[in-house]
Amino acid sequence: MMRRLSAILFMDVVGYSKRMSLDESGTLAKIKSFTDNILNPAITKHNGKLIKSLGDGWLVAFASCHDAVSCSNTLKQSISSNPLDIRFGINSGDVHFENNDVFGDTVNIAARLEAISSSNEITVSESVYQSLEKEMKNDFKDQGPVMLKNIQHPVHVWATSNINQTSSAMSSTDDDPKSKLVLVPIKVDPSISALQPACDRLIDSMFEVLSSKDWTKTLIDQNPRKNDYAINLRADPVSGKIQFSFNLLGPSGNVITSNKFNANPTGVDNIIDTLRDTVCFTNTCKFDEV
Fold it and tell me: Hey, what long-range contacts does 31-37 have (CB within 8 A, 24 or more apart)?
């Protein structure tokens, strides 16, 4: 088994089953035409390798994130003149290659990203986004950390349009009546948006600490349920400094505890560990009192 860094692109045809039930031969003809005349030339042009065709989708490996996104953009632009609707999902990282197939978490996450992508849109992970040049980054909107089905950690997601929040690939906790502790992604004032990556790292770091506790399950989610506890954080410019504010909210929305921390704009990266430890310790103590 060979292992190397790669960018993995998953694509699938939206509404494939319905198309097949209405017009099987016509659908297969359209997919074959797309594969032969549009997909294969685009893969070759952007130095990709078609790993497998899945009937209603394709898995392609690239040596770089730039090539994977460029290929997806080429295909996306062709959709306007093509009778098929397609979703795109891209992730990058270590990939295991064996017997003309690929394996590993990198591949699994790429498949989940494709599944939450909106029709005719591209969804990528943070690792892919950060590898892109500025001009290419401008096509993507920040979707924040997302819990994906059967993926143990949150994945920071970027997409050319809003992701499909109702996708079955999204991790759901609504079927569990027990209260959770939910980390809500940090709201960053637009005037200091350059600090968003540092704030995302803070949330990810807090998740690592809190998810190791056995007194409750911790999630990262934009929308806590009514019976969940939630940690809300904000980052705002105040008198030349960056002020981090946090609240621990109870299931009824009541504020259990709150605090504020100030940091120099150029020193935010240096205090992430301190913020994480302080916020996590404070909330752990307060949660034990509830």
Answer: 31/56, 31/84, 34/82, 34/84
Residue 173 lies in a domain: no
> What is the rounded distance in angstroms from the CA atom of residue 60 to the CA atom of residue 9?
5
Whether residues 152 and 188 share a domain: the answer is: no
What's the alpha-carbon Rg for the chain, to the nearest Å? Answer: 21
Question: Full-prediction pTM beyond 0.70?
Answer: no
User: Is there a single domain that holds both residue 185 and residue 153?
Assistant: no
pLDDT at 103 over 60: yes
Task: Supply the pLDDT for residue 123.
Answer: 97
pLDDT of residue 273: 78
In whole angstroms, how far apart are CA 129 and each of 38, 47, 64, 69, 140? Answer: 25, 19, 12, 9, 8
The string of pLDDT tens digits covering residues 122-180 is 999 999 999 999 999 999 999 888 888 767 778 899 999 988 765 655 555 445 567 78
Distance (Å, rounded) from C-alpha 279 to C-alpha 261? 10
In whole angstroms, give the CA distance from residue 280 to residue 277.
5
Please check whether residues 248 and 106 belong to one and the same domain: no
Look up the domain containing 214 and give its range.
181-289
Instruction: Give the DSSP H or E segment for 255.
Output: strand 255-263
Q: Over the stretch 240-260, which tens digit does the pLDDT of each residue have?
A: 999 999 888 888 788 888 889
